[in-house]
Amino acid sequence: MTWRATRRFLVEHLSEFRYGEPARGSLMVLRLRPREDGGQRVLRFELGIDPAAAPVPFQDPFGNACHLFNVHRTHRRTAVRSLAEVETVDAPSLPERMESDAWDALNEAAIRLDHWAFLAPSRFARPGPALAAFTEGRGIRRGDDPLSSLLALAAALHAAFRYEPGSTAVDSPIERILETGRGVCQDYTHVMLAIARSWGVPSRYVSGYLHPEGAPGEQTPAGASHAWPEFLLPGPGWIGIDPTNDTLADHRHVRIAVGRDYADAAPTRGAVFGGGECRLDVRVTVTGGAEPEPPHAPRAERPNLRDATPATPASPAGADQ
How sure is the predictor about 308, in pLDDT bands with cuts at 50, 70 and 90? Predict the structure, then answer.
């Protein structure tokens, strides 16, 4: 494998929950530690919680690094701060088109069984009359091969929708963006997942961050988390395509968690005992670092379709955007 240039980023993510009344206790699951796959490496990770709590690490069924903590005393706020230094790589080189039998490879029974969780409708990525009308009205249909079809789909969604922070909520169904044409990255992602799965392409949601570099089409603002889908293709394995920015996922994209949709990959999810109305403020800072020297040993190739690790479903999660 030819060595691909790497980048280092320092990511700080602060989630602050403020309660209208004193909370008697709280329980929270975090998905904030970046993944270590697909050429991405975690060089440092720190986690701070206020009020002080002892997070217990575990791995969910999708292979995400998670932490669970609880607070057993009265408190008016909960603040979670994560700091990660991450090394990412450039996007892999892909062919302009795939072989003519690529759709047949995706239809093999073993593939459909191993990756059924990423082929079935999920809570936020499911078919419906609004999606059918949208694809019909835009002339969106699968083409001769999966890769070119997905790239064309990303471009069509980028052109059809307007990125508008605050226009949807974390629990908004895809019908909201289909009807208004306005949404954020998770809405673009859920629509693309629903369409790609209807074509028979195993598709998963990715939560993470984007380091804006002024590239054409960038419209995810600094200070926010990001989301995009990944697709399992014969040969390349899992590849990321970002419809919000109409680009392949590349060194600018820092991957945190994957799942069937946002519910499986939300940065934070929890329950509060008492507390009244809750307000959440999120601040994200992604700072670019120096480019490291080439490694002495090349990284492993991306898996092909048969070597890709199968996944089983996880319990829904969702809170922090």
Answer: very low
Q: 3-class SS at 241? A: strand
State the pTM of this model. Answer: 0.88
Give the burial class of 89: count Cβ atoms within 10 A of its Cβ; 0-12 exposed, 13-18 middle, 19 or more buried: middle
Helices (H), the chain: 102-106, 109-114, 129-138, 146-160, 174-180, 185-198, 262-265
What are residue 105's phi and psi, to 5 degrees?
A: -65, -40
Tokens of 91: 């996007």
Q: Report how far Cα 229 is from the mean position of its chain's Cα atoms.
A: 6
Residue of 264, 230, 206, 234 whose CA lies nearest to 110:
234
Q: What is the three-state SS of 105-140? A: HHCCHHHHHHCHHHCCCCCCCCCCHHHHHHHHHHCC
DSSP string, 8-27: EEEEEEEEEEEEEEEEEEEE
Read off the pLDDT of residues 48-87 as tens digits, 9 standing for 90 and up.
999 999 999 999 999 999 999 999 999 999 999 999 999 9
For residue 78, what are the β-bridge partners? Answer: 17
Describe the strand order of the beta sheet including 203-210 as a list of residue ranges.
247-248, 237-242, 226-233, 203-210, 253-259
Contact 87, 43 (CB under 8 A): yes
Please report, as a single letter, which amino acid is at residue 30.
L
* CA-based nearest residue to 78, from 14, 30, 17: 17
| The CA-based dihedral angle spanning residues 4, 252, 216, 147, taken in that order and rounded to the nearest 10 degrees | 60
Structural domains of the chain in order of their starting residue, each with its CATH number: 6-88+266-288 (2.60.40.2250), 90-264 (3.10.620.30)
Query: How many other CB atoms are found less than 10 A from the CB of residue 85?
Result: 17
Residue with tokens 């002495």: 296
